[in-house]
Structure formats: structure tokens, C-alpha cells
Specification:
alpha+beta
Length: 324
């Protein structure tokens, strides 16, 4: 190995970092080499470079191209007692940190969170969504997460972040101030609340949670089935109103099909048949009537589209059973 090869392995002339997706920090590979006086330092957009001397932050460099010399290494110059004419190589640890927003990350509850809902009582809720963050306070991030690692990526700290999110989620929902149906109906407001809840934990690591979205809230299948049944009962609600609506629809249909004065008569007849038939079909009080007549009226209801074939068959069977 020649002298030039030896020197090229001992002195660093170019310092830069071409970061890969998901990388947060990198210690520049010095390999026991020293930095050449006048070396070129390139800090790209969204990056910050830190020079460390014996474990302490010496100088910081924002995006730009630098020629390393006494003028732009003021702290390190003071620590090393260099005069203005220093020309020898120097040893320093150089770390690069990315301040770019890391977007499109997913979070979710590994286990359902039990909350006290003011409408339904205790509920077990699952939630899923996405979030983004960036490195905000580099010294804090370097001290608490980077440490002496050579490289740190998003995947390295994601479990820690998701744990903080789950804790914030349980705290925010556990108060029971907002009913589940209201939470599910206004996910934008819930997202804002949870963003505020997770920010302190992120800030403690030198991070900033830039965005936080709740994309889905769900209940256990059995609870959801119960809510669906309750909703169906509320939709059916007042049978009398349902009967009147179906009667009006059948009258319009009969009048349109028959036309003219005859249509009006047919519509009135259909209306009477539907009103009486629906009352009988749904067990509402009314005058006693021959079962055969009821079956005829039910058939008229089915023909008009007010009831289904299955409903007609079921009621007919029940009426025939009374005759037998």
C-alpha cells in the first residue's frame, strides 16, 4: 500500500449523508480517521449535522455547503484551543439527523380498550388510524433515543410511539365524557383531541406529532349486533305511521294504474283495503272479521306491494290455523 493510499484512509475530506426512507439519524463512519482541515461538509435540506467532542455537542450545521475551518467551528475551536491558523486534522464524532416529516405511519389498539360510555355503560373499543411525526428537538432526540447508535430508523422507535399512543387513547376515552356514537360520528374532533393527548409523550423524546387521524372505531361483534337491533327497532318505531305511509303509497300506485275517476275509486278501495289489512296484519285493534276476508285483503296488500310474499304467507297460515 502506497503513502497516498495510507493517507486517503486516515483523513476524511468529504462528509455528507444521503439518507434512505425511514432513517432518522446516522453517525458518520469515521473508522478511527481524522477530519482533514478544509474538508467539505454537505448538509442537505431537512437535515442537521452535529459535531461532538468527548460526548458533548460542539457545533451545529444547518442545510448548506461548508468548508471546515476555524471560522465555522467556533465551539470546537475553543474546546481544542486552536488558534486562527490551525492546519492539522482533528478528531470529532459527526452525527446527521433528519427533520423531515415521517408520514403514513399506522397505529392501532392491540387489545380493546375498556371505556365507561355515558350511554351504554362499559364498552370495549378498538381504534385504528394513521399519524406522522418529525424530529423537533435534536439534542433531546439524540440524548434519549439516538444515544451511541450508529443508525436509527422509524421502525426502531415505532413500538415505543405506538405504546404512547395507546396510553393516550385510553386516557382520553376513559373519561367517558363523550358517548361512543358521538365519537364515531365526529372523528375529526376525536383526532384533534388525541393529537393533543399524544403530543407531550412525543415532545419528551424530542419529536413533534404533526398529524393524527382516527380512521375507524369499532365495538365487539356482539355489542355491535345489539346496537344494530336497537337501531332497527327505532326505525320501525310507530307502526301506525308506517301503515299510513304504505297506504298513501298504495293509493298513488292504484290511481296511476287505473287512471281517471275509476283510478280514484280504485285508489280509495285500495286505501281502505290496505288500512284495514295492515291493521289486521300487525295485530292492531279493529272489528272482528272473517279470516277468509282478511286473507283476501292481505292478498290485495301483497299485490299493491305493501307487504312481501313471505309476510302474506305467514299471516295466511296463521289465519287458516284459526279456522281449523
Amino acid at each position: 500500500m502506497g503513502l497516498l493510499d495510507f493517507l486517503s484512509k486516515q483523513f476524511v475530506a468529504v462528509i455528507d449523508w444521503v439518507e434512505q426512507p425511514g432513517e432518522l439519524g446516522l453517525r458518520f463512519p469515521m473508522q478511527d480517521r481524522e477530519i482533514q482541515n478544509g474538508a467539505q461538509l454537505t448538509v442537505r435540506e431537512g437535515q442537521t449535522a452535529f459535531f461532538y467532542n468527548e460526548g458533548q455537542v460542539a457545533d451545529t450545521f444547518k442545510p448548506g455547503l461548508y468548508t471546515l475551518e476555524t471560522a465555522n467551528l467556533p465551539v470546537l475551536t475553543a474546546l481544542m484551543n486552536w488558534d486562527k491558523g490551525f492546519a492539522s486534522p482533528f478528531k470529532s464524532d459527526v452525527y446527521f439527523f433528519s427533520s423531515k416529516e415521517q408520514a403514513g405511519l399506522k397505529w392501532g389498539t392491540a387489545q380493546p380498550i375498556t371505556v365507561r360510555d355515558k350511554e351504554f355503560g362499559a364498552l370495549r373499543i378498538r381504534a385504528f388510524g394513521s399519524y406522522s411525526f418529525r424530529v423537533e428537538d435534536v439534542p433531546v432526540f439524540a440524548a434519549k433515543l439516538m444515544g451511541t447508535l450508529d443508525r436509527l430508523t422509524v421502525s426502531d422507535i415505532e413500538p415505543q410511539l405506538r405504546g404512547a399512543i395507546a396510553t393516550a387513547l385510553a386516557s382520553a376515552l376513559g373519561t367517558g365524557e363523550t358517548a361512543f356514537v358521538d365519537l364515531a360520528g365526529d372523528q375529526a374532533a376525536m383526532s384533534a383531541r388525541l393529537l393533543a393527548a399524544v403530543e407531550p409523550a412525543f415532545a419528551a423524546w424530542g419529536l413533534k406529532c404533526c398529524s393524527f387521524f382516527v380512521e375507524s372505531l369499532s365495538l365487539p361483534d356482539a355489542v355491535q349486533e345489539h346496537l344494530d337491533k336497537a337501531s332497527s327497532m327505532r326505525v320501525v318505531g310507530d307502526i301506525d305511521r308506517y301503515v299510513r305511509f304504505q297506504t298513501a303509497e298504495a293509493i298513488d300506485t292504484a290511481a296511476a294504474q287505473s287512471g281517471g275517476v275509476a283510478g280514484i275509486g280504485a285508489g280509495a278501495a285500495a286505501g281502505m283495503a290496505i288500512g284495514q289489512g295492515m291493521g289486521a296484519a300487525f295485530g292492531q285493534p279493529g272489528p272482528a272479521e272473517d279470516p277468509y276476508a282478511q286473507i283476501q285483503k292481505l292478498h290485495a296488500l301483497m299485490t299493491a306491494g305493501a307487504i312481501t310474499q313471505a309476510e302474506f304467507d305467514a299471516k295466511k297460515t296463521a289465519l287458516l290455523a284459526k279456522i281449523g
